[in-house]
Automatic annotation (TrEMBL), chains A, B:
A UniProt-annotated Pfam family: HTH_20
Superkingdom, natural source: Bacteria
InterPro entries assigned: ArsR-like_HTH (IPR011991), HTH_ArsR_DNA-bd_dom (IPR001845), WH-like_DNA-bd_sf (IPR036388), WH_DNA-bd_sf (IPR036390)
PROSITE patterns per record: HTH_ARSR_2
Name of protein: Helix-turn-helix transcriptional regulator
HTH arsR-type domain sequence ranges: 1-94
Amino acid sequence: MPKYHGELDAVLRALADPTRRAIVERLAKSPAVVSELAAPFSMALPSLMQHLRVLESAGLVTSHKIGRVRTVSLRPGALDVLHLWLGEMRTPAEQQADRLGIHLTRTASKET
Amino acid sequence: MPKYHGELDAVLRALADPTRRAIVERLAKSPAVVSELAAPFSMALPSLMQHLRVLESAGLVTSHKIGRVRTVSLRPGALDVLHLWLGEMRTPAEQQADRLGIHLTRTASKET
């Protein structure tokens, strides 16, 4: 079991919900204020805030408040644990294909 | 919303459970028969079979039966939708870093 297992668990549970995933997809483009995030969902603000809390406690988003406006951002490197885990899930055949791909890229670069 | 959204949804829901994730981690090493998969978990066989059904319907694993022995494998490319989605979630700053990394790798290859 990987060391980052607890973090990965929180990230996957957060992303298993389509609304939370849609929020992450929106924030990958740019930070947004809460009202902007709420707009595409026909959802009461308390429900949206609940989703944001789950995303924040999973380390996926951060937010800061200036005056009455709260801006939410995707945390840089937030999805790194998932990248890491996916890398470990490569089957032996896929790892071999990865190495071949790297070799071919390097060879092609040298030839040009 | 990406086109592969339904598939991604099933994959993330399947992986949000730690037992199912542990099964995927085991299968990434090699295919296994059901009794091998059950061994590390103090779990009744019907519960394990239920987890395997969820993984199978999410397209993460396949299984085949020879005689009385059922062998389960990780489906090649099973996690591709997740790779794809993660690629789309790269923030503009991360995408810029990716391009710089590719450029530096190519430059380094040419110099050696």
